[in-house]
């Protein structure tokens, strides 16, 4: 069972990497579109039209598509003023409870998003904008990100629970625990070490 969950997490991690690249690309493209629109309005007094609408869709989609990656990297915001002073067993229990609460909230949000998408499909709803975008398109892409999050948090929660029951508190912390300052500093140091300073690059003959 544990091996299956580890493989599931590995697959979810690969999916989340693709998702975050796609989501980031959407946000970057929307930023470029808005910038071009602003410049054209200023210089030529013309507008591309719909830049604000498309950027809103891109931001919403990019946000949900980044949720799974954020969860796996434990990059979500955690209030740990009291947490860091508690015994490790209590911290592990709180970590799992946090996953349960987060998963429950996102499950409810996903269910509501599915309902909204169904309503848009039933009525073939369009945005009340000049583009008249069929709402099922951005809504379905937004929903994909939420489904990916649930697909990721399910094995993460089960694997953390098995680790807690097995007394492996270190594993629970590595999967679901709040990141420490030391971990962030170590990651930054490792990232910096992999960057070759420009001054050390020798010009080609």
Describe what this molecule looks like in 3D.
The chain has 205 residues and is an all-alpha fold. The chain has one domain (2-180). It is built from seven helices and no strands. The chain has helices at residues 2-43, 51-65, 67-72, 88-123, 136-165, 169-176, 181-193. The chain is globular, with a radius of gyration of 22 Å. The N and C termini lie far apart (58 Å).
Sum up the structure in keywords.
mainly alpha, globular, 73% helix, 205 residues
List the helices and strands and how they pair.
Layout: H1 2-43, H2 51-65, H3 67-72, H4 88-123, H5 136-165, H6 169-176, H7 181-193
Helix pairs in contact: 1-2, 1-5, 2-5, 4-5, 4-6, 5-6
């Amino acid at each position: 069972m544990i091996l299956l969950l580890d493989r599931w997490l590995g697959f979810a991690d690969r999916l989340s990497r693709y998702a975050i690249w796609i989501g980031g690309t959407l946000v970057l493209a929307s930023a470029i579109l808005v910038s071009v629109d602003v410049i054209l309005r200023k210089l030529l007094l013309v507008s591309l039209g719909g830049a604000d609408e498309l950027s809103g869709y891109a931001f919403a989609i990019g946000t949900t598509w980044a949720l799974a990656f954020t969860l796996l990297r434990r990059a979500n915001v955690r209030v740990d003023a009291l947490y860091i002073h508690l015994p490790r067993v209590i911290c592990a229990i709180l970590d799992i409870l946090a996953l349960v609460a987060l998963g429950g909230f996102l499950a409810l949000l996903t269910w509501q998003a599915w309902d909204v998408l169904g309503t848009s499909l039933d009525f073939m709803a369009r945005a009340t904008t000049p583009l008249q975008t069929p709402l099922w398109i951005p809504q379905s892409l937004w929903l994909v990100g939420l489904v990916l999050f649930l697909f990721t948090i399910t094995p993460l929660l089960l694997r953390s629970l098995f680790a807690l029951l097995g007394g492996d508190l270190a594993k629970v912390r590595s999967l679901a625990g709040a990141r420490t300052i030391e971990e962030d500093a170590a990651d930054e140091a490792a990232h910096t070490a992999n960057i070759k300073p420009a001054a050390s690059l020798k010009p080609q003959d």
